[in-house]
Amino acid sequence: MVTKAKKRPAAEINRIAKLLDDAQRKAKPVPQLSSKKGGALSIEDAYRVQDAAIKLRLKRGDTRSGVKMGLTSRAKAAQMGVFDPVYGRLTTGMLVQDGDSISHAGYCHPRVEAEVAYLLKSPMSGRLSPAEAMTHVEAVAPAIEIIDSRYANFKFSLEDVVADNTSASGYVLGQWARPDTDMSNLGMVLEFNGRAVEIGSSAAILGHPGRSLAEAARFAAETGDELQPGYIVLAGAAAAAVALSPGISVKLTVEALGSVGFNVEA
Ligand code: 0L1
Ligand code: MG
After folding, report:
1. Which residues line ligand 1 (CB under 6 A)?
2. Which atom of ligand 1 is nearest to the CA of 149?
3. Which residues contact residue 76 at a Cβ distance below 8 angstroms, ignoring those fewer than 6 apart?
4. Distance CA 13, CA 75 (A)
5. Tens place of pLDDT for every residue, the chain, 266 residues?
6. CA of 135 to the centre of ligand 2 (A)
7. Rounded CA gap, 2 and 45, in Å?
């Protein structure tokens, strides 16, 4: 993450953070930042916007609950035309309980992704091997991420999507399982109303979701974030994201880990 672009002033970072925060709260998409003259941010400034937007949520009483890795599988990267992994921040306000319902109207254009999650038991930061990163893990679970770009038409550059907290919007966690569960090649099936819409393997997540966990530690160190005990790390999608519509019942089954799901109100 080394670029030489001049840092934008804090007031500008805060203005962009508010623009994206408003778009999220009102479920009203805004044009891509990079589509405007002088709008393209450096990647460092994009992470500063992300941090500032999360602080707006925390000011409203939300609390940090973890992080997410994005664009970690070939299928996801190809779907969006953006090929670098990205890092976003989760809050408790984004948590959807397993089996609960959400309203489609509360989002701009929501999609879901088949993922796995790690629960941390100790602080984690810096350059770690996947095996070293795993020593910080209390448990693992099947997880669904609800992503929702705050940009019109779900279109963005790498910097745009980082500023928009990598489209983080919601997450649903299944039952926690032992941290020594072999996560290297677990079959994953995402179903809408009982019909498979995506099939994948945990191996599609950077070759092994443990690599994505280690990447989260590196991103945290590079973006000035801190991974705390009790934090969730969403490892990233094993397959392409699928658009939600009202009346859909979503279920993800991960081999050896079980199922998790939620409903979209009709
Ligand atoms: O979690 C993800 O892989 C999403 C990262 C951002 C790109 C997108 O919104 O699809
Ligand atoms: Mg994701």
Report:
1. 68, 70-71, 76, 80, 86, 113, 145, 147, 149, 161, 166-167, 236-237, 241
2. 9
3. 70, 113, 236, 237, 239, 240, 241
4. 31
5. 545 567 999 999 999 999 999 999 999 999 999 887 777 899 999 999 999 999 999 999 999 999 999 999 888 888 888 888 999 999 999 999 999 999 999 999 999 999 999 999 999 999 999 999 999 999 999 999 999 999 999 999 999 999 999 999 999 999 999 999 999 999 999 999 999 999 999 999 999 999 999 999 999 999 999 999 999 999 999 999 999 999 999 999 999 999 999 999 99
6. 23
7. 12
The per-residue b/e assignment along 214-228, b for 16 or more CB within 10 angstroms, e otherwise, is bbbbbbbbbbebebe
Q: Are strands 187-192 and 195-201 parallel, antiparallel or unpaired?
A: antiparallel
**139 CA distance to ligand 1 centroid (A)?**
24
For residue 104, give the DSSP letter. G
Nearest CA to ligand 1 atom 10: 80
Top mutation candidate among 32, 76, 90, 155 for ligand 1, by most atoms within 8 Å of CB: 76
Locate the ligand 1 atom nearest the alpha carbon of residue 71 and give its number: 3
Ligand 1: atom nearest CA of 68 is 1
Rounded CA gap, 178 and 174, in Å? Answer: 13
CATH assignment of 10-264, among 3.30.70.20, 1.10.260.40, 3.40.50.150, 3.90.850.10:
3.90.850.10
Q: Note the ligand closest to the C-alpha atom of 80.
A: 1
